[in-house]
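Sat 14:20. Reprocessing the chain from the morning session after the first attempt stalled halfway. Input below, unchanged.
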Amino acid sequence: QAQLVESGGGLVQAGGSLVLSCAASIPTFSNSVMGWFRQAPGKDREFVATISWGGDTTYYSDSVKGRFAISRDNAKNTADLQMNGLKSEDTAVYYCAATHMYFPHDFTWDANDYTYWGQGTQVTVSS
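Finished this time. Tokens:
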């Protein structure tokens, strides 16, 4: 059964760091773009970061650029999100997502393009 499982969420003080991990059991992970999205209470789900399946192309939302870093390990079928300099506005449920793309440098920030989704992990940043 295809699935994505996030881990690493928790409670952290403002300015702190967390690493979220996504373990993937999906067809052709090595040819799948990985993305991270988040949803804060009362708000729509928003894009955070994405990485091409070749691993050499990344893209971030303006709100996290310079603070977060996405990476992947195709040998382990995992994708991580390193979050530094956390702010209270980063508090949200974070979701891992995946979708197959043909070219190694392709990526997408559109949630509608993603096929697989995890259940989410809560990140709470206290000020």
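Residues 42 and 92 are 10 Å apart (CA to CA).
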